Amino acid sequence: MNPLPSRAAHALCLSLAFAAFAAHAQTVTAIRRFNPPATGINQIRVQPGDQVEILGSSLHLVQQVRFGNATAAIGGNASRVIAIVPAGATIGPVSLYDSFGLFFATDFNFQVSPRVTSLARSFPPPTSPADSITGVVGNSVQILGDNFVDPSDPGFTSAVYFRHVSGGWVLAPSESVSTTTIQVKVPVGAVSGSLGVENPAGSVITAGRFYLQPVINGFSPAAARVGDAVTITGVSLLDTFQVSFGNVAAVPSLVTATNVVVTVPHLTQSGRISLVAPGGTFLTTSNFVLLPRVTTFTPAGGEPGTLVEILGDGLTGVNAVRFGGVNAQSVTNVSANLVRAVVPQGAFAGPIEITNPNGSSQSATPFFVAPRFTDLTPAQGRPGNTVVLVGANFTNVSRVEFATGLAASYVVTASNRISAVVPVGTVSGLIRITTPGGVVASPRNFTITPITPSISGLTPGFGDVGSAVLITGANLGEATEVRFNGVMAGSFNVNGASSVTALVPVGATSGKVRVTTPSGVAESTGDFLVGSTADLGLTGQVLPTDPVVGQEVVFSFAARNDGPIPATATSVSVVLPTGATFVEATTSRGSFQNFGSTVFFSPGDLSRNETALVTVTARMGAVASVRVTGQVQSDTPDPVLSNNTLELVVAPGRPGVTVTRLVGGGVALGWPFEPAAAVLEGAPALTGPWSTVPGTPESTGDGRRLVVDPGEPFRFFRLRWVP
What we know:
The chain is mainly β. It folds into eight domains: 18-112, Sandwich (Immunoglobulin-like), CATH 2.60.40; 115-212, Immunoglobulins (Immunoglobulin-like, Sandwich); 215-290, Immunoglobulin-like; 293-368, Immunoglobulins (Immunoglobulin-like, Sandwich); 372-443, Immunoglobulin-like, CATH 2.60.40; 454-530, Immunoglobulins (Immunoglobulin-like, Sandwich), CATH 2.60.40; 534-650, Immunoglobulin-like; 658-721, no CATH class. The strands form 18 sheets. Strands 1-9-8-5-6-7-4-2 form an eight-stranded antiparallel sheet, with no helix packed on it. A hairpin with a 2-residue loop joins strand 54 and strand 55. It is elongated and about 175 Å long. The relative contact order is 0.05.
């Protein structure tokens, strides 16, 4: 890629003519550049690395191809040879050699891109090698090398370009040019950098650089601390090797033609920046402002009144020092690197901040002011409780200690607040907090309140001797004794503060469970039931006790569990005799199902001393002794089965009809109940015929009543039950 501006190529026709030097078998018909592709005059204009094609016959005998005096690398066959233009190629004929020597040369020159070997200022004459590569606009610069002109082509010459201040290149006015030498003047707008040399065959960037006076346009930031990076911008800054802040030199970390990055060295005061490059020295008109910087301080902490030495850079003129935002009692400027200050009353832990006319700076680490302990809430509690400690300067707390020196777990929730957990085993006394600033004690004692044990549950709530029982509650961790209704458990295990596992001891009976700890005795609210059976029993009654045929009778059964353990999956069955008709059933718990003459009740589980009440209502259908049987059972073993079955017996009588003569001659017929299928019949004689007495019966407090007209043809009455 050509970095320089193009120059117009000469327009000419290329004609190849060859001069043969001996009657050899080789012939050459054409020589031209073919890579990169070219046409016209460009076929004989080459740069090192280009490929030139030689066509002819018997060319396999070619042993050497030269461009001027430089030998090219070659390859090919009898009809074609490819020669690579060598780095030292010069303008001139292309020569071919075989084993006998030169056998062919072009009668025209191949034109080669310029080659630069050195450059130096020629006027004014330099005083030293370093001086020879620097200058100003208008100075003369001489470039040595080759291929600057082609003597055979008046239009083939070279031009020189300098780097331009705005970027790109600027053409240097030419003073003289020959094949090996060019002399030009430094153009206006030139800046430090490599030069560009161009001829019609190509261009080259010089390896050497020519330097002009550096110029600083600005620097950023304008104020910084020791150790900060400052970027200097300008022109001709190339190869800057030193930057000074006042009289303190620093080596740049990054240098380009327009930027220099340098770290602020250890300074004592602000000052101008100077830059030294091969092209000269430049001094800024404005000062670089040195900001103060705190690097360390001693001691690391202390109480109000402590003298603290603060070290750093740019500390001249410090007029304020703050500890946690509170102004120091006194400030003494010892030097640009040392300030002394006294910790004020009311100071807070935090960075030390210093201020002078140039700015402010904070220390990277905090100064630890002695902590203050003003209150604790609550002031009493038990191990495991959380206590809030209130004060100030709780920074970098390393330990919270209760009485007897027991360390507590804690969380610093703010610079003035700590949440601490009361450790197990502590006693009443002061609480101490340790920070890098010192140790402080609470203004009052923390009091340990008695730990009262309690029992909240027993799992299971019943069991036989030897079975395991989980006793849950609070503050059971120091249990020393477990008793079942007064009988001591021979074996128990403390699982933690909230539970104990114990085995039911021999001789235990149902009753309370007690756990003894050094802080007291805890008792269960309910009884633990000792045993493995449940004694179920039935009691019952029948109402009315003297029913008549057709009347509804209620049979009630009470199923009770006398323990000692709950009866699971309890069921009660009630069986009606033949002739009794089921009307309805009720239960105090659970559900029931009716299957003809049998009703099944499912009350579920019955705890000790718990009762389930079931009833069956039936209508009596005949004058006979009636036996209704109830039976209770469960999945729990029952040691006494004799009380699980109960028979309720009633003997229904015949219903009677009363005849009452009324004032006025009427007759009132009454009977004691209201059977749905009872029919009142009358007849003129005992032998009949019997027929239904007309009229609508009315209800009375004792049953039913029907008033009959005395003119009716009935002398006898009966109540017939229609089942």
